[in-house]
Design a protein that fits this description.
single chain; about 15% strand; about 210 residues; alpha+beta; three-stranded antiparallel sheet; TolA/TonB C-terminal domain
Length: about 210
Amino acid sequence: MSAYVQDTQILTRRTVVLFAIVALHIFLIWVLATGLASRAIQMVAPPIQTNIVQQTKEQLKPPPPPPPQLQKQQVEVPPPVININVPQESQTHAITVVKKVPHAAPPPAPAHVTALRAIAKDFPSTDDYYPDASRRLGEQGTAFVKLCIGAGGRLVGDPQIQRSSGSSRLDQAAMRYARATSGHFEPETRNGAAVTVCTALPIKFQLTDSF
């Protein structure tokens, strides 16, 4: 019996709380509907005051007056009078020096040149200087030897190999042959005087028949 009474009290309290919550919600809805909330807010928060500040325009100062224009006065100055005294020619006995312009000397006449040439009738033959070993081995070739030939058609200085024949034996034979040609040239002359000239003499070693 006591348990039933306690349950009934609990239900009664819950019912009261439930009705209180529902009544609170109904009151809030009614307040919002009738505009009491906005009135309460206006009463609590003071209205916002706005002050309009009028800006005063600064009065512009008038521009300064323009500077006065100065007029330049033109002063006319008469041109000066210049008297030029031209001296009259007078007879004088002074000695005048006349400079003579030197004339350029005429160019020299071209020299009469006779070129270097070999005396064919006495020129040695390469067969006399052909090495026997080169003949047996069938070596052939042409060596270019530099010669300097002066007066009398004779060699000046030692000959030099300018381009090898490809064989040292043939090059040595070409040097011996070049020395043997000394005195077998007619030297080059200029206006009749012998001059020393250098030339490259080709010395060819070629087998003409079987050895």
